Amino acid sequence: MEYTIEMLNITKKFGPLVANDNIDLKVKKGEIHAILGENGAGKSTLMSILFGLYKADNGTIKIKGKEVDIQSPNDANDLNIGMVHQHFKLVGVFTVLENIVLGMENKKKGYLDLETPRGKIQKLIDKYNLKVDLNALIKDLSVGAQQRVEILKMLYRDAELLIFDEPTAVLTPQEIEALFGIIREFSKEGKSIIIITHKLNEIKAIADNCTILRKGKHVDTVNVQKTSVNKFAKLMVGRDVDFLVEKEASKPEENVLTVENLNYYNKDKTKKLLKNISFNVRKGEIVCIAGIEGNGQTELVNLITGLDNINEQGSKIILNEIDITKSSIRDRFEAGMAHIPEDRHKHGLILNFNLAENFISNTYYKPQFQNRGVLNFENIYNYAEKLIDKYDVRSSLGAKSKARSMSGGNQQKAIIARETSREHNLLVAAQPTRGLDVGAIEYVHKTIVDERDRGHAILVISLELEEVVNIADRILVMYEGEIMAELDPKKTNVEEIGLYMSGSKRQGANGGSKDGEN
After folding, report:
1. Nearest one of 41, 69, 43, 67 to 55, comparing CA atoms
2. Residues 195-210: pLDDT tens digits?
3. Are 203 and 180 in contact (CB under 8 A)?
4. How high is the pLDDT of residue 140?
């Protein structure tokens, strides 16, 4: 049988860490092939070798039966291999059109020709329903629209093998459904698709076959339709995984966080992004905020944690009976707040610092880590090693690994380790399981429940409805900057929450509900 792509006996080491250990991967024409594995299992490394970002230490790559040497992404493009990375490779101040042609520019009489490629790209947009404005700046686009630009970049280069690295990690349910429709269309045309993911239900929904990696080794390749979700989980992490969170009924006590009449406008005050938001989070409970991305959740978290400043009079945020409305981020931390941010690169980590330095990035001034301004590196590295072991944070050089070099999932685990290990009684967690595998998600959920049971107040913001229903003691649903409903997870379901999220249902003042657009 002829395969579009064969990767045979691929081995890649980073110092003492064996990221890929003698791995085989074979993908047929028109096949949608998933690569499944824990964080740090070697999935992205394997695809980076195929795309020319890394060079394998050993092994062979064949395209349609012919051995090839891929030294760079340019070589991969010449072989009709394209890749959409987990963190998009786009220039924010360039237009969509400029990003798509970057590296393959046409010139006419010595000048950059953008009109000739515009026609080809517009045909691709129309054919695959990849709606995006070619004249828009990347920095002004939603995450879903940026992903469509990355797909257009591949198609413009005539890619026949398409690699998607965690393509749904930052998409809404509606965007995921649209993406899968596009991928199925690619498959019907005979393109081969590789999807790197850890989401088991999505593998069942989209893939034909699946290769499972664990700790850098090839565990198995299976037919997706003949394999259960529980079987996938066990192959991936090497043990049975409990998908349901075991927790006792909450016993909430006094308020820890109180938000009163919170209003917020965009920077030029042309649009109100938050409208009269009021709620509380009590000691010993988990409050989850559900909503489609872009409905005010990010702005709400930024105001609570101090990443942004309130620009409307009368709004108030109180933490442990202290008015922190205008407090600095450090003062909020000192008052008892911990924060797992939505954007781990922008607000969670200093990518050029190592893991140990990141672990103490917001506590470095504590006596444990310094004396009269001189850092105690022995204590810092001992502390880092304890967190690495406790939270199973994997990296090539341990505490000395640069944060930039770690997988997205392990970067997230490092942030969770830092925030839940320091002194606090309120944890604000924005998308805490984004980019994590099922084993790590299970661990994070148990960590959050343990935090609650130790008397902490937990505020979780999540796009994953199953996660919300699974861990919440109370659910708040946001739509267009307003809280549409407060729900008891025991008395609701994903379908009802979805109606509130879309704005087609709204809770009345007496706690009842009414239908209709708002």
Report:
1. 69
2. 998 788 889 999 999 9
3. no
4. 85
- All structural domains of the chain, each given as residue ranges with its CATH number in brackets, are 5-237 (3.40.50.300), 242-336+423-518 (3.40.50.300), 349-422 (no CATH)
- State the pLDDT confidence band at 455, using cuts at 50, 70 and 90: very high
Assign residue 489 a region: left if phi > 0, alpha if psi is -120 to 50, beta otherwise?
alpha
| 178 CB burial (10 A radius; 0-12, 13-18, 19+) | middle
Please give the torsion angle defined by the CA atoms of residues 425, 457, 262 and 349, in that order, rounded to the nearest 10 degrees.
60
Cα separation, 62 vs 58, in Å, equals: 14
Beta-ladder partners of 461 = 289, 430
3-state secondary structure of 12: strand
DSSP letter at 182?
A: H
Rounded to 5°, the CA angle 358-435-441 comes to 95
CB 460 within 8 A of CB 432: yes
Burial readout 13-44 (b: 16 or more C-beta within 10 A, e: otherwise): ebeebbbbbebebbbeeebbbbbbbbbbbbbb
Tokens (6 digits) for 465: 């409805």
CA–chain centroid gap for 437, Å, is 11
What would the mean pLDDT of 13-29 be, rounded to a whole number? 92
Residue 68, strand partner residues = 61
Give the whole-angstrom CA distance, residue 159 versus residue 79.
Answer: 8
Q: CA 228 from chain center: how many Å?
A: 24
HSE of 430, CA atoms in CB hemisphere, 13 A: 22
Eight-class DSSP state of 312:
S
Report the predicted TM-score, pTM, of the whole model to 2 decimal places. Answer: 0.72
Question: Would you say 417 and 358 are in contact if contact means Cβ atoms under 8 Å apart?
Answer: no
In the block, residue with structure tokens 């880590």: 369
Question: What pLDDT score does 10 carry?
Answer: 97
Query: Distance between CA atoms of 107 and 89, rounded to whole angstroms?
Result: 23
| pLDDT attached to residue 511 | 56
**What pLDDT was estimated at residue 517?**
44
3-state SS class at 43: helix
The chain-wide mean pLDDT, for the chain, equals: 89
Beta bridge partners of 255: 282
| 190 pLDDT higher than 90 | yes
Strands (DSSP E) contained in 266-309 are: 272-282, 286-290
Q: How far is CA 392 from the centre of its chain?
A: 19
Tokens 């702005």 sit at which residue? 299
Rounded CA separation 410/39 (Å):
6
